[in-house]
Amino acid sequence: MELAASSLTPRRSAPWAWRLIATALSFTLFGLGGLCLRLVVFPLLSLLPGDAALQRRRARQTVSRLFWLFVQFMYRSGVLTYEVEGAERLGRPGQLVIANHPSLIDVVVLIGLIRDANCVVKQSLWDNPFTRGPIRAAQYISNNGSAEMLDEAASALRDGQTLIIFPEGTRTTPGQAPQFHRGAASIALRGATVVTPVVISVTPTTLTKAEPWYRIPARRFHFHLRVGADIDPQAFAAGGAAPIASRRLNDHLHQHFIQELALDEPT
């Protein structure tokens, strides 16, 4: 399945001033939506019958649907266009989704595409008043760098959850190749049924770590997400200790992303 919003409603690029206003509206809605979820929606959902697993699934599905609505708002208001290739292969039990991280909205798009996904998120988001409600209700995993985090992530995969992780740990510096930490490979070897790489490109670059939200590009940016071929993590475990297997898998993933991202570079 391929989703494309660059040609659904052909039109001229929205003027710069309007796109700045629309971007501000987008992030205002995102913040207010997070507060609303924390103070109203999730307390109401917690009153519904069901065990802890069902409550968690409801929370994750709610976050997923609202994130996708957020993407649609950014598209309809002229901030971005998007293209998604292979979305139907996301969301399988025990699947570790590994993605590069060029922009602020990467996790929003991925969670929006996967209705019941777990995700490793930055520790700072756990304490942010606008994001901590959804994050805690959905029981996402805090990336605090501890061994317990690795155990929790591997356990989630063995439990049949889909897990999203960004091995860089932070957004990619524009113009530089992604640098992967070995934690994602270690988690894959310890718990994943399959590893699925997702290559993300944003053209022109925007919402990077070095840019404030209001420094918008001269035209609408295009968000391109491409789901790659599955990787069997156990193929890297044969004949070596765990640290060696982890390094092999991490190196393979790193090279895969560098090669795939080169295909998206303008000629």
Entry summary:
One of its GO terms (biological process) is phosphatidic acid biosynthetic process. This is 1-acyl-sn-glycerol-3-phosphate acyltransferase. With 267 residues, this protein is of the alpha/beta class.
List descriptors.
alpha/beta, Glycerol-3-phosphate (1)-acyltransferase, 8 helices, 8 strands, 16% strand, transmembrane, 1-acylglycerol-3-phosphate O-acyltransferase activity, transmembrane helix, 1-acyl-sn-glycerol-3-phosphate acyltransferase, acyltransferase
Descriptive notes:
With 267 residues, the protein is an alpha/beta fold. It is 44% helix and 16% strand. The chain has an 8-stranded mixed β-sheet with strand order 1-2-8-7-3-6-4-5, sandwiched between helices.
Q: Please tell me the CATH architecture by its name.
A: 3-Layer(aba) Sandwich
Question: Strand sequence of the main sheet, in spatial order?
Answer: 1-2-8-7-3-6-4-5
What is the helix content? Answer: 40-55%
CATH class: Alpha Beta
Which ranges are low-confidence, i.e. pLDDT below 50, for 5 or more consecutive residues?
7-11
SS element count, helices: 8
Terminus-to-terminus distance: 27 Å
